Amino acid sequence: MVEADVQPESDERAARPDSAVSANEWRWMAGVFVAAIVIVVSRRPDAFLNAQFYIEDGQQWFATAHEMGGLRALLEPSYRGYLHTVPRLGAMAAVCVPLAWAPLVMNACAVAVAAVTPAFLASSRCSTLLESRASRVAAALLYAALPGAWTMMANMTFTQWHVAMLGAFVLVARPARSRAGWAFDVTATALCGLSGPTPVFLIPIAAIVWWRRRDRWSTTMLAVTVATAAVQAISIVVTAPSTEGNAPLGASVWALANLLATKIVFVLVGASRDSGRSRARTTIRCSASPSSSRS
């Protein structure tokens, strides 16, 4: 009598050839990548039908790359002195086309960069965060939709936050098993660290992962994170006095309350962005008025 053994999905996947696993993995990641692009384009069609520079995309990244040259602009610090490598790489691509097409190229680069993060989240390497594939794909598509955060879509200025999320996912994900995976992890972590102040906050995560795994790869990831944080710290110390400007930061209790109301509360109840902002301001001002406090 022949007995049939029932193996769990993870064992079956491990028993299959690596080529089959890789092909299936790439299909899922490519599908989520394309879906993320479709989601962003459906929410920001103006970024392609009427492409324009979004704040720093034009006045900082493109202008600097156009005047100084793309390679030299990569080493140009801005905004409190730290480096912005990913937005400047997008500007390098934009200066290669006529000026009329430059905003479209930068927007397309921004959408592609942002779509990498949900694609990686949907991969089996992120099973350390979400075990089932369905939950990973759902989380990836939700991330791509970004309710209440349309300003972070289709512009190079905010790609630093998408790259920061990608860097965090790479640190806690299952280690790569191929040279291409290793190259991707190092590149993503380095670009994350050189595109904003985020490596300072990722060092504790990288240290915890290294402490738990104690392997060569987690040591490498920790070293890359610390090295990029050191580069950003040196850039800030050396150049911040000449790049931080005189504009106030704008932090206040009113700004925090307005942010929570317009970006979280009214988004959760389905209110539109404009109506949510106006009603939030009315509510907060009424609650803060002297007459309401005396009643």
Helix segment tally:
15
Low-confidence blocks of residues: 1-20, 272-295
The fraction of residues assigned to DSSP E strands is: under 5%
Distance between the termini: 84 Å
Count of domains: 2
Could you give the order of the helices and strands?
A: HHHHHHHHHHHHHHH
Rg, alpha carbons: 22 Å
Output mean pLDDT.
80
What's the story with the biggest beta sheet? none
| Percent in helix | over 70%
What is the β-strand count? Answer: 0
Helices and strands: which structural class?
mainly alpha
Rough shape? globular
Task: Please tell me about this protein's structure.
With 295 residues, the protein is mainly alpha-helical. The chain folds into two domains: 23-246, no CATH class; 248-295. 70% of the residues lie in helices and 0% in strands. It has 15 helices and no strands. Helix 2 (18-43) crosses helix 7 (102-121) and helix 9 packs parallel to helix 11 (199-213). It is globular and about 45 Å long.
Q: How would you summarize what this structure contains?
A:
This protein is mostly helical and 295 residues long.
Summarize the topology.
Elements (H helix, E strand, L loop, with lengths): L8 H7 L2 H26 L2 H4 L6 H13 L1 H5 L10 H10 L7 H20 L11 H13 L13 H14 L6 H15 L5 H15 L2 H28 L9 H16 L4 H16 L1 H5 L1
